[in-house]
Amino acid sequence: MLPFIRSDLATFTAYTPQPGGHGAPSDAVDCLDTNESPRDLPAPVKAAIAQTYQQTIAANRYPDGSHAELKQQVATYVDRSAQLPPGTIAPTQISMGNGSDELIRSVLIATCLGGEGSILVAKPTFSMYGILAQTLGIPVRTVGRSPETMAMDLAAAQQELETPGDRPVRAVFVVHPNSPTGNALSPAELAWLRQLPAHILVVIDEAYFEFSGTSVVGELAHHPNWIILRTFSKAFRLAAHRVGYAIAHPEVINILEKLRLPYNLPSLSQVAALTALAHQDELLAQIPEIVAERSQLQAALQSQSHLYVWPSAANFLFLTPVSTAAQSSLDPWFTTLMQQGTRIRHTAGGLRITIGTPAENQRTRDRLLALLT
Ligand SMILES: *Cc1c(COP(=O)(O)O)cnc(C)c1O
Which residues pair with 307 in a beta bridge? Predict the structure, then answer.
């Protein structure tokens, strides 16, 4: 129909976000489908952002395209978050993205575009790697996961690396801990990633590391072919502002800086991220509560016998059917929950439920147990 458009794009469907987004004041729905923080910023923190907007941002001026102050503060946070000596990670090892989604796209462009390579992922995992690769015409090679532990099938992954074809694997994408399955990288997975050759980029997405307390950032100095991705969208409660960052060797960062749009981060988003970092102790204080709520919900849901509840190191739970009967009931269960006002994700043959406020989790538990028992 549009003869000027690349033929492969005709077969893709656009990502369809929830109309209106989440969290409108009139919204009586429990939004437990996108792993956001259940709480908005504390009012004084939000007010500080608004005040900075009013007093110091000139709306007619472009944002700081160097992100200089933000990179400095992020580097300081990265050190602190991994108990590294201050100054371990330099600002030259940080690149800021319009959400980590933008950084994922830059990584794909930098490694595989123009028929130069393919990426490897272990399914199920974060869907955005595959979606963005597809839009760039980059092949996605997939391997499976252990039905017992959800660890990636390393033998199959190794096999893929050794079968170059005309588009060898240039980048491996892993999430630590993984979404939707909730497992952190195992010692065997980490050992495999450590020995990958220098011509393969290892992307370790730590979107949920504040919940798991696990990070590989301390190992980065030994691995110039590693890149760690993080986001302000989850633990830092800034999903509305679209701020993500990459941590890597300065030469890798230089490439990402070449690829990003000059003013990719609006001034207000930079202020929001700086303000959140200035209040990090207060914002991250909710993490122990979310982790405790996760354990309680997990224990409660284990009392039914239709869905297996996977252990989780993140701010969500993943449930998979234990029988074919349960499998065919997933969709009706999902729909009923939606009608009752609990919005979760039906994905990868299971249900993924974000941990919300205690009241939301109570409703999740009551509604789900009523359906399942
Ligand atoms: C939520 C999430 C992100 C965050 O993406 P943003 O674009 O920064 O909002 C990145 N990776 C994974 C695995 C996620 O679940």
Answer: 321
For the stretch 77-122, pLDDT in tens is 999 999 999 999 999 999 999 999 999 999 999 999 999 999 999 9
207 lines ligand 1 (CB under 6 A): yes
Angle between helices 187-194 and 154-161 (to 10 degrees): 10
This prediction's pTM:
0.96
Q: How far is the CA of 303 from the centre of ligand 1 (A)?
A: 31
Tokens 């359906």 appear where? Answer: 371
Name the one residue in this structure whose structure tokens are 């209040």: 279
50 vs 163, 236, 276, CA distance in Å? 53, 17, 13
> Rounded distance, CA 79 to CA 142, Å?
33
In the prediction, which pLDDT does 87 show? 97
Is the distance from CB of 76 to CB of 243 less than 8 angstroms?
no
* E strand intervals along 123-168: 140-143
125 lines ligand 1 (CB under 6 A): no
Q: Is 231 in the pocket of ligand 1 (CB under 6 A)?
A: yes
Contact 240, 42 (CB under 8 A): no
Task: With beta carbons less than 8 A apart as the criterion, state whether 187 and 179 touch.
Answer: no
Q: What mean pLDDT value characterizes the chain? A: 95
On the question of a cis peptide bond just before residue 180, with omega within 30 degrees of 0, the verdict is yes
**The pairing of beta strand 244-248 with beta strand 226-231:** antiparallel
Beta pairing class for 118-122 and 169-175? parallel
Residue 118: beta bridge partners? 169
Mapping DSSP onto H, E and C, the string for 250-305 reads HHHHHHHHHHCCCCCCCHHHHHHHHHHHHCHHHHHCCHHHHHHHHHHHHHHHCCCC
Tokens of 45: 């923190």
